[in-house]
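Hey, resending since the last one bounced:
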Amino acid sequence: MRGAVTVERYTRTAMLLHWLMAALVIVMYGLGWFMVELAQGPQRGYYFALHKSLGLSLFGLLCVRAWWRLRHAPPALPDTLARWRVTLARSVHLAFYALLVIQPVSGYLSSSFSGYSTHWFGVPLPQWGWRDAPLNELFTEIHVVTSLALLLLLAAHVLGVLSHLLAGESAMFRRMWPW
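The structure tokens again:
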């Protein structure tokens, strides 16, 4: 076990946005897997509309989080952290941002080319497309593939957190843990 390392913590706002988005991503996965198994009908339509609304809300939170991040530098990483771990952590976080942009954009475009309108909790949004099955399928595939990539990235992130905890680096974990 290494000696105690003191590390700076993220701001309360950054923690709130992180954990709120994490919870919403988990809800989105559960909802997404549940809704695609439903038969055509009002119940399926309700869950698709909810998925779209929550996805757009998640995108809004991502924009707020990116704005916050640009104005508040993250806490410095300890000098004792191996360079490859720093590079990996930064790469994973950058990939998170990229995938969390691609996900809602591809979902919105898929919806726009499906022939169904998109609403945000009942508020109609502009359609960017027309009924076009091949384009709908293309954006649906992008949505599915990036959701799988996001799931793998999430697993890598959790494994990274666990690796810090198992290495006795609990201070690294506490950087983002609000309690």
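The chain has a mean pLDDT of 92.

Sorry for the duplicate.
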